[in-house]
């Protein structure tokens, strides 16, 4: 599988050694509710990091902050070495093209076919011809193990595992360097979950992606050979290898790891 040419017409500054994502002193609120308090988080080029934490602890919100969909009340968000806050609209759009996101519920457009779902972010760019888009949709379907013959189906005609694959193909459509995945294996049965994790791992290696995912599933963390960041007490309380986090005796992780058998 070869990588399609870069879609960005703008020069892309290289991420420096300090990180693809750097959050410093981030405070996020929804009205009066404080979600993140002085939160720091770093992801470096090629890292795979699983974000864990209780339900409602602010994991999805953290991904939204990284995506620039939710603005923090305070603090700095840097992507590929550039500050989101100080970026112009054009710079923000260019940065966003370097990110792919798989949303918590798959979130495909139900009225659009598989083809149109994957083509959507490409058409949004506004400068690609339909022939190129078609080839790119074919390539991305192939990457996630689906057949171009399935491109005419609508989301209602897909199994849960297929929806995840199409959502992943759509997230990869713009050739991102950073992939954000919110609960990628939730709702899949164990064999489908394992096969989806293998697929993410293969694509991460092949495309040299930096991946930040939210998960409740220890098998997913192990399968991705991911490091772990623990979101608790409104910040990333600890970040380390799975062995380090497992050995850390804290209420936020105790329940999480107790529920899963060791390999
Ligand atoms: N758009 C919003 N407006 C107001 N409050 C919100 C909004 N989105 C999320 N919240 C609240 O912010 C808190 C954090 O939500 P978030 O979705 O980030 O949690 P989460 O850690 O992803 O949870 P889960 O594991 O259940 O997906 C929750 O209390 C939620 O109700
Ligand atoms: Mg969530």
Q: Can you describe this structure in just a few lines?
A:
With 263 residues, the chain is α/β, with parallel strands linked by helices. 36% of the residues lie in helices and 23% in strands.
Would you mind describing this structure in some detail?
The protein is of the alpha/beta class and 263 residues long. The chain has a domain at 17-98 and 209-263: Rossmann fold (3-Layer(aba) Sandwich), CATH 3.40.50.300. It is 36% helix and 23% strand. The chain has 9 helices and 10 strands. It has helices spanning 59-67, 89-96, 114-125, 130-143, 160-172, 190-207, 218-223, 242-247, 251-258, and strands at 21-30, 33-43, 48-52, 74-79, 82-83, 99-102, 178-182, 210-214, 227-232, 235-240. The strands form 2 sheets. It has a 6-stranded mixed beta sheet with strand order 6-7-8-3-9-10, with helices on both faces. A 4-stranded antiparallel beta sheet has the order 2-1-4-5, covered by helices on one side. Strand 9 (227-232) and strand 10 form a beta hairpin. It starts with 20 loop residues before the first strand and ends in a 5-residue tail after the last helix. 38% of the residues are buried. Bound molecules: adenosine-5'-triphosphate and magnesium ion. Residues 30, 35, 53, 55-61 line the site of adenosine-5'-triphosphate (ATP).
């Amino acid at each position: 599988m070869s990588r399609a040419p870069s879609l960005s017409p703008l020069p892309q500054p290289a991420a420096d050694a300090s990180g693809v994502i750097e959050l410093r002193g981030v405070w996020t609120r929804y009205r009066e509710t404080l979600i993140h308090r002085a939160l720091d988080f770093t992801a470096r080029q090629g890292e795979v990091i699983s974000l864990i934490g209780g339900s409602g602890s602010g994991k999805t919100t953290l991904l939204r902050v990284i995506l620039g969909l939710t603005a923090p009340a305070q603090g700095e968000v840097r992507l590929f070495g550039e500050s989101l806050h100080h970026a112009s609209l054009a710079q923000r759009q260019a940065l966003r093209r370097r990110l792919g996101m798989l949303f918590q519920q798959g979130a495909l457009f139900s009225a659009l076919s598989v083809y149109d779902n994957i083509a959507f972010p490409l058409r949004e760019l506004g400068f690609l011809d339909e022939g190129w888009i078609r080839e790119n949709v074919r390539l991305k379907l192939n990457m996630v193990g689906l057949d171009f013959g399935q491109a005419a189906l609508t989301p209602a005609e897909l199994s849960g595992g297929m929806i995840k694959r199409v959502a992943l193909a759509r997230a990869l459509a713009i050739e991102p360097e950073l992939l954000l995945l919110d609960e990628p294996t939730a709702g899949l049965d164990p064999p489908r979950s394992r096969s989806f994790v293998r697929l993410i791992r293969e694509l991460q290696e092949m495309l040299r992606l930096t991946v930040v995912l939210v998960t409740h599933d220890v098998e997913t963390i192990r399968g991705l050979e991911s490091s772990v960041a623990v979101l608790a007490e409104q910040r990333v309380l600890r970040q380390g290898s799975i062995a380090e986090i497992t050995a850390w005796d804290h209420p936020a992780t105790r329940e999480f790891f107790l529920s899963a058998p060791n390999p």
